[in-house]
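Hi all, posting the design record for the shared folder.

TITLE: backbone redesign
STEP: 1 of 1
STRUCTURE INPUT:
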């Protein structure tokens, strides 16, 4: 199963991707997680990405495309993958197509978690508050102002990715504002259809 989860920050892509990892035994490829690891490691990519991420902007296409290109060559990806947070621009979507074609892989489906922008802001405030209550460090980019910048980047650069997959006939949509279990059931039903 090769799938992409689409939707703005805070839509629940990470939560659902995590669950699908357990269910299908395929890895979650999250460019956000990979970039945060690069920042924590202080690697050259991490040093380049840090300020951009802290501001809620998008890291350059060539950096994330390079990360995904390498990751798709790892053996655990042969059984499939869940892309979470990539592609985030039309150029990334086109680059992904070229990469998959070169590697002899075919995408099964792109699932969009449909959302409401206002509700997302309160959801992300909760995520930060929950992390704080649990003694976990909140993500720096879950700060309300930075989150609004991330949301703006989504509507500016990433919203165009959804019609791209619709035109290819692989887009499916589920209601991302429903509860976690309901969203999970809708995704499972969608995957059962396309498998
Ligand atoms: P995420 O955890 O997916 O919300 O990503 C956190 C941050 O990492 C984003 O706000 C961007 O700064 C950066 N990032 C993650 N994935 C991408 C991507 N595909 N393209 C550009 N920047 C990205």
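Okay, here is what came back for every position:
SEQUENCE:
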């Amino acid at each position: 199963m090769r799938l992409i989860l689409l939707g703005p920050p805070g839509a629940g892509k990470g939560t659902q991707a995590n669950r699908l990892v357990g269910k299908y035994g395929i890895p979650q490829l999250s460019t956000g997680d990979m970039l945060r690891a690069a920042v924590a490691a202080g690697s050259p990519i991490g040093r380049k990405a840090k300020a951009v991420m802290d501001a809620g902007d998008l890291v350059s296409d060539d950096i994330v495309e390079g990360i995904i290109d390498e990751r798709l060559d790892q053996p655990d990806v042969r059984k499939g993958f869940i892309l979470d947070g990539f592609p985030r621009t039309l150029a990334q979507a086109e680059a992904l197509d070229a990469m998959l074609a070169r590697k002899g892989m075919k995408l099964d489906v792109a699932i969009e978690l449909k959302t409401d922008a206002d509700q997302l802001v309160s959801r992300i405030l909760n995520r930060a508050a929950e992390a704080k209550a649990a003694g976990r460090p909140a993500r720096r980019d879950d700060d309300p102002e930075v989150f609004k910048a991330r949301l703006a980047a989504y509507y500016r650069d990433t919203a165009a990715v959804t019609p791209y997959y619709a035109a290819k006939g692989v887009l499916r949509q589920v209601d991302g504002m429903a509860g976690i279990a309901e969203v999970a059931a809708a995704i499972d039903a969608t995957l059962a259809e396309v498998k």
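COMMENT: The beta strands are 2-6, 28-30, 81-84, 109-114, 171-175.
Let me know if anyone wants the other runs.
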